[in-house]
Every structure is written in C-alpha cells, then in structure tokens.
Specification:
The chain has 112 residues and is mainly alpha-helical. The protein has helices spanning 9-21, 26-45, 72-85, 87-99, 103-107. It is elongated, with a radius of gyration of 21 Å.
C-alpha cells in the first residue's frame, strides 16, 4: 500500500501498462483512473489539504461508442416478436432499450 505522496505520474503509467498486460479494457482502466483522480482532487480540496500535488493521470482512448439506435417502428416490431417468444425475452429487450445495456450485461442479470 502506498501513501498519496508516493504516487507519481510514472507509477500511474506503470499501473496502466500492467493492467493492459492483464488484458483489461481501456474503459475499465479509465474508470479506475477516474476514481484515483477523484480521490486526489478531494484530498487537495480538503481543509486543510491532505495532498499538495496531484499527479498527472492521462486517460486512455476508448473505442466502444454505442451505435445502432432503434426507430419507433423498429422498436414496436421487436417488442411484438419478443412477446411471442416469452415474457423473459420481452423483459430483457425492454431493459436493454431503456438503459442502453450491452448484451453481456443483460445476460449477467439474475432474478431472486
């Protein structure tokens, strides 16, 4: 475990390299880096400040923009088709449309 004053831009760059070698997605790494940035900024704004310096934390390029939005007619047609297959498929479809979740996220859902 490190103290905040021990965290440097070089150390963050090494962390990014190690996460990329673990095959973590750039979006995942960026969420982790965003949390770290937030912690440093909160510590700097505290009274009295808990850190004097905030290391530069470069964010990675993400290429996972969601595309392919449905028109109202397409949505209605898909709702009808999903309804014929069953309520569970219709529910998954509605959650996907409402929240914009990806199919992996939907399939991970569990009902208790």
């Amino acid at each position: 475990m490190l103290r905040a004053v021990e965290v440097s831009s070089l150390l963050v760059a090494r962390y990014i390299d190690s996460r990329q070698q673990e095959r973590a997605a750039n979006a995942t790494i960026n969420r982790e880096l965003a949390a770290l940035k937030r912690m440093f900024n909160l510590a700097r704004r505290a009274t009295p400040p808990r850190v004097n310096n905030v290391p530069y934390i470069a964010m990675l390029k993400e290429n996972n923009v969601r595309t392919g939005f449905l028109e109202a007619k397409q949505h209605d047609r898909l709702v009808a088709e999903c309804g014929m297959a069953g309520l569970s498929l219709r529910s998954i479809f509605e959650v996907a449309c409402t929240y914009g979740w990806r199919h992996e996220e939907l399939l991970a859902l569990r009902v208790r």
